[in-house]
Amino acid sequence: MGSALGFLSAEKPCRFREAAIATLEAAERPYRIAVETPNLSTLRAAVQAKLGVACRTPLFPIDLAPLPSHVLPPLPSIACVIATADKLGPATTRLHEVFVQAILAL
Fold first, then answer.
1. What is the rounded average pLDDT for all residues in the chain?
2. What are the φ/ψ torsions at residue 20 (nearest 5 degrees)?
3. Which CATH number do you get for residue 42?
4. In which region does residue 66 sit, left (phi positive, over 0), alpha (psi from -120 to 50) or beta (all else)?
């Protein structure tokens, strides 16, 4: 095996973190948590500084290209749950629709 992969992550609980770590461990790929933060701005800065790799969706705004698929094992699908009140106003209904469309587009 090569050297340990620097992994950048949001703090627990984070579905992206859980999926990435489970995948790395199943593939027996050595890693170390290089940055762990509760703040997405800090995570974005760490990725831009190339301190390691992060597991995020294409909605995570960054000017870097994703890693080629052969570099790391493939990640599993991650469930997304959107909870809403029984009755929503027009603006909240529209926001819900936008969220659902964005998630389905991933």
1. 85
2. -65, -45
3. 3.40.190.10
4. beta
List phi, psi (to 5°) of 40. Answer: -65, -30
Structure tokens at 12: 């627990």
pLDDT in tens, 28-78: 989 999 999 999 899 999 998 989 988 887 767 677 777 777 777 888 877
Where in the chain does DSSP place strands (E)?
A: 5-10, 31-37, 53-54
Q: What number of other Cβ atoms are within 10 A of residue 46's Cβ?
A: 20
Q: What range does the domain containing 102 cover?
A: 1-106
Q: Which amino acid is at 49?
A: A
Distance in angstroms (rounded) separating the CA atoms of residues 42 and 9:
10
Residue 1 has pLDDT above 70, yes or no: no
Q: In total, how many domains does the chain have?
A: 1
Overall size of the chain counted in residues? 106
